[in-house]
Amino acid sequence: MENNQNGTTTLQLVLAWGFVGIPLVLGVLQTLVNAMKLFQ
Amino acid sequence: MDTGSGGGGWFSRSRTVAKPGFSRWMVPPAALCVHLCIGQAYAFSVFNLPMTKLIGISESAPDDWKLTELGWIFSLAIFFLGVSSAVFGRWVEEGGPRKAMFTAACCWAAGFLISAFGVSIHNLWLIYLGYGVLGGIALGIGYISPVSTLIKWFPDRPGMATGMAIMGFGGGAFIAAPLSVWLMRKFTTETHIGVMETFVVLGIVYFIFMVVGSIIVRVPPADWKPDGYVAPKENKLISKNDVFVYDALKTPQFWLIWWVLCLNVTAGIGVLGQASAMSQEMFPGLITPVAAAGLVGLMSLFNMGGRFAWATTSDYIGRKNTYFVFMVLGFILYCLVPLTGAAGSVAGFVLCFLIIISMYGGGFSTVPAYLRDMFGTRYVGAIHGLLLTAWSAAGIFGPVIVNYLREYNVTHGVPKADAYNNTMYIMAGLLVIGFICNFFVKPVDSRFHMKEGEAGAGLGAAGQAAKA
C-alpha cells in the first residue's frame, strides 16, 4: 500500500471496504444458507 | 493533467485525478459499488417465474407473460450492454469514471422504476424499455469505467486487477437474489405478487450505492506506477506496443478473441439466465423454488470467485492457456450435465454448473488482460468496450437457444426433465469452435502498432491522427 502516509487514511480504507464488504458478506452467508436448502 | 475532457465541474476527469498520497486500494471498493449493483442482472431469473403469474397469482393465466417473452428482457439488457460499451467506450475514457458511474446510476435506477410501472400496468414493452434498454445502457457504461481505471492503477497485476473489478459484477447476484426473494415475499399478498414494489426498492437502493462509488473513485496521474514496479519479461504474446482503438478492429486477433469470448459466454449465459427454471424442471420435486434461488446464489459465488481466481491464474499461466482450459474442461462438463439429469444426481448437476459458471466468469475477467497483452494499455478500455459486443451477441444466442430448443422439445413430446439435453450438447460444440479460434491467436503484426508521436498524443489527438 504505497503513498498513503499523507493521503488516504486507514479509517477511509476500512469504511470504503466495509461499505461494499458488509452487504457482500451478508449475501455470502445468505447464499450458504440457501445452498443448504438445495441439498436437503 | 490535460485529458481532453475540458470542463464539467465535479464530474470532470480532471477533478478525479488522485492527489499524492491517495491509496490505490480505495479504487476497488469504488468499482465494487457499481459492479455489485449492475451484477443484479445475473439474478434476474428469480423474477421470471413470479412474472409468469402476475395475473393468475397461484398459476399462470392465459394473459400472463410466458418465459420465452420474459427471456427477452435479459437478452435486451445484454445486447444494450454491448452496444453502449462500444459506443460510449471512448466517452468513458475521456470523461472519466465519475461521470460514467453517475450516468450508469441514473440509467440503472430509471430502468427499475420504468419496469416497476410496466409491471403495475402489465405492459411488457415498458419492461423491455426500462430494464432491457435503459438498464442495458447502465450495464455497459458501468461495466467498463472501473475496469479501465483499475487496469491503470494495477499495471503490475493486470489479470488480478481485472479480476477484482469484474468479480464485483459476478457477485451482484449474491446480494440481489436473496434480497429480491425476501422483498417479493414481503410485498406479496394472496391477491398480488410483489414484483413491482421490489423493483422500486431495488432502483432506489442501487442508485444510492452507485453514487457513493462515483464519489470515491479516482484515476491515477499520467505515467503513475506503483512503488517497486518492474516491467514484465520478454514474451511474444505480451506486446509492449499500443494499437489505436479502431486499428484493433482491423486485426484478426481482435475478431478471434471476439469469437472466443462470444462462444464462451454463449455457452454460459444460455444456462445462467434460466438457471432457476431449468433446475426445477430437470429435477421436479427435488429442487424447489427456494432451493433454485439458492442455486442461483451459489452459482454467483462461483461466478464471482472464478472471475478473480481465473484472471489471477492467467497472470501466471498466460491468457491463451487459460482460455484453452475453459474450452476443454467446459466441453467435458457440458457433455456430463445430461448424464447427471438422467441419474437424478442433483450434486453432480450442481458441481458441473458451478465449474462451468466459474469459467464463464473467468472468461470475462481474463479478456481485458488478454486485450492489454495484444493491443497494449493505451486504448484497452475502449477496445474492451468494442469487444463486449461479443457479450451482446451471446446474450441473444444463449437464451434463445435454451428457450426455443426447450419449447421445441416439450411440444414434440420430450419430457420436461430431458428437454435441455440437446442444448447442452450444442453448447459443448460451441466450445470446440472457441478452442480453434483461440489456437489461431498470434501476436499482432507490427504494422498495426502506434508510432512514437501517436503514442504520446492525447485521446483526441490520436483520433485526429486516425482520421487523417
The count of DSSP E runs of length 2 or more, i.e. the number of strands of chain B, is 0
**CATH architecture label of chain B:** Up-down Bundle
Radius of gyration of chain A: 16 Å
Instruction: Say which CATH homologous superfamily of chain B is assigned.
Output: MFS general substrate transporter like domains
According to CATH, what is the topology of chain B?
A: Growth Hormone, Chain: A
Mean pLDDT across residues of chain B: 85
Multimeric organization: heterodimer
CATH class descriptor of chain B: Mainly Alpha
Most residues in contact, chain pair and counts: A-B, 30 and 39 residues
Strand content of chain B: under 5%
Instruction: Please count the helical segments of chain B.
Output: 18
How many H/I helical runs of chain A?
1
Largest sheet data of chain A: none
Low-confidence stretches of chain A: 1-5
Q: What are the key terms here?
A:
heterodimer; A: 40 residues; mainly alpha; 0% strand; rod-shaped; disordered N terminus; B: 468 residues; Growth Hormone, Chain: A; 18 helices; globular; disordered C terminus
Task: Describe what you observe in this structure.
The complex is a heterodimer of chains A (40) and B (468). With 40 residues, chain A is mainly α. Chain A contains one helix and no strands. Helix content of chain A is 72%, strand content 0%. By secondary structure, chain B is an all-alpha fold. Chain B has one domain (23-223, 237-450): Up-down Bundle (Growth Hormone, Chain: A), CATH 1.20.1250.20. Chain B has 18 helices and no strands. The chains are: A mainly alpha (40), B mainly alpha (468). Chain A binds chain B through residues 1-8, 12-13, 16-17, 19-21, 23-24, 26-28, 30-31, 33-40, and chain B through 18-26, 29-30, 32-33, 36, 168, 171, 174-175, 177-179, 212, 216, 226-227, 287-288, 290-291, 293-295, 297-298, 300-301, 346-347, 350.
